[in-house]
Write a structure and sequence with these properties.
The chain is of the alpha/beta class. It contains nine helices and 26 strands. Helix 1 runs parallel beside helix 8. The radius of gyration is 22 Å and the shape is globular.
Length: 396
């Protein structure tokens, strides 16, 4: 190769943006051409999306301008939508052009998994991007406004969240915080508002520490959440949701948080996938093409027990760092390193003032969990953009 290698990074989520910022730090100007493609001109904090969805945080706060994170002398940023990946031709088709690459990093994130449940695609809302959460927040406010004109329609004030995994739990935590303010704003009797969290498994947060799950459920129930456990959502209609026991909950607002799959573009590119996720090799490359790396929710890495690690921002970021280090090694003819996740724990918010988590094997709950979550958020901002980004976006 007489010219310098071309690296293309698809997606500026946790994995992609970390790969880009690490490459810009490590590579010299003449070592590679690096291009980052993202459909928006901002990186967003997916881990905060439950808050603007409920209206407890501004959507503006979760967006970070990509050009404020990258050095345009080192990284070309292309704001465009990826339509197709062609690994055999080493090309990526965008909505407004084509890019060729020598090395590709796929970090296009996840999509909502509906498991073919009828009506979910058509009638349920989901927490996936700034645009989808803006829709949820505005829809909730619209429901309150509609109720004022049709006070017999209590289904306008019934909110159903399908799935009590971490996304579902964090979202209902914000919803119960927001409701008193909405009731006051629209002069609505708070006892008319119903928030259901429906879960197929016998417990919320299946697989998580049982004592913390109990704490979380008690905290949410005290603030008005009605759990429906062991009851899969069977169908969603314009009038509400049907549960496996035949019960029908009348509601004009169904938010589906029942699962995540990898981006469809990855399987359409011909890589072997399981629910849209690629089983990568220890260096995070696809088995079909060793010049294609996959990070974040599009990748599967197995834990020592042989089960996939859950798709998290924590892992996506670390994968972005490993891929950047490996690309630098390949370009310099050095040995690549295997990806070894360094898991620090899991923390979930239960609204503004409560939370649960396991941090370095220690259980935390209440304000301690809230504080740990804030520290985690600040740490991410620091890793991404140093003190200036912490000062601009950080909040305690
Ligand atoms: P993403 O962060 O989803 O980024 C994908 C990027 O690709 C986006 O910028 C998107 O715009 C872009 N993109 C997608 N398609 C295209 C296209 N066709 N063309 C161009 N660009 C495209 N994990 C944790 O570790 N801790 C948490 O506390 C936590 N909280 C969460 C809370 C919520 C409400 C949710 C929904 C998830 C949470 N997660 C958390 C999970 C975590 O957010 C994801 O695992 C993480 O975002 C995955 O990162 P990623 O880089 O793979 O993709
Ligand atoms: P998930 O797959 O973890 O949870 C989905 C939940 O929906 C499960 O409990 C599942 O049993 C339930 N479900 C599936 N089908 C159902 C049906 N038909 N009816 C009712 N319930 C059904 O998805 P998620 O919560 O969006 O999380 C996705 C990833 O993001 C996970 O890896 C999670 O760890 C991570 N995440 C982490 C945090 C955090 O660390 N604070 C927050 C949000 C998400």
């Amino acid at each position: 190769m007489s010219r310098i290698p071309r690296i293309v990074i698809l997606g500026a989520g946790y994995g992609g943006i970390m790969a880009a910022t690490r490459l810009q730090k490590e590579l010299n100007y003449n070592e590679a051409d690096v291009t980052l493609v993202n459909k928006h001109d901002y990186h967003y904090l997916t881990t905060h999306l439950h808050m603007p969805a409920a209206g407890t945080e501004s959507a503006k706060h979760v967006k970070i301008n990509i050009l404020s994170l990258i050095d345009e002398f080192k990284i070309d940023f292309v704001k465009s939508t990826v339509l197709q990946i062609k690994p055999n031709e080493q090309k990526v088709i965008l909505s407004d052009g084509t890019l060729s690459y020598d090395y590709l990093v796929i970090g296009l994130g996840g999509e909502t998994e509906t498991f073919g449940i009828p009506g979910l695609k058509e009638y349920a809302l989901n927490i996936r991007s700034v645009n989808t959460v803006n829709l949820i927040r505005e829809h909730i406010e619209y429901m309150f406004a509609r109720y004022k004109g049709e006070p017999h329609r209590t289904d306008y004030l019934t909110f159903v969240v399908g799935g009590a995994g971490f996304t579902g739990i964090e979202f209902v935590g914000e919803l119960v915080d927001r409701m008193p303010k909405l009731c006051k704003q629209f002069n609505v009797d708070p006892s008319l508002v119903k928030i259901y969290n429906v879960e197929a498994a016998p417990t919320a947060l299946p697989g998580f520490d049982p004592s913390l799950v109990e704490y979380a459920m008690e905290s949410l129930k005290r603030r008005g959440v009605i759990f429906k456990l062991g009851l899969p959502v069977k169908e969603c209609t314009p009038e509400g949701v049907l549960l496996a026991n035949g019960e029908f909950i009348k509601s004009q607002t169904v938010v589906w948080t029942g699962g995540v799959r990898g981006n469809r573009l990855v399987e359409e590119a011909g890589f072997e996938t399981s629910r849209g996720r690629v089983m990568v090799d220890p260096y995070l490359r696809t088995k079909e093409k060793d010049n294609v790396y996959v990070v974040g929710d599009c990748a599967i890495v197995l834990n020592p027990e042989g089960r996939p690690y859950p798709p998290t921002a924590q892992i996506a970021m670390q994968q972005g760092e490993t891929v950047a280090a490996n690309l630098v090694s390949v370009i310099r003819g050095e040995k690549q390193k295997e990806f070894v996740p360094n898991l620090k724990g899991t923390i979930a918010s239960l609204g503004r003032r409560d939370g649960i988590g396991i941090v370095f094997k220690y259980k935390v709950k209440g304000l301690a969990a809230v504080l740990m979550k804030k520290i985690t958020d600040l740490r991410y901002l620091y890793l991404l953009g140093g003190i200036p980004l912490v000062l601009r976006k950080g909040r305690l």
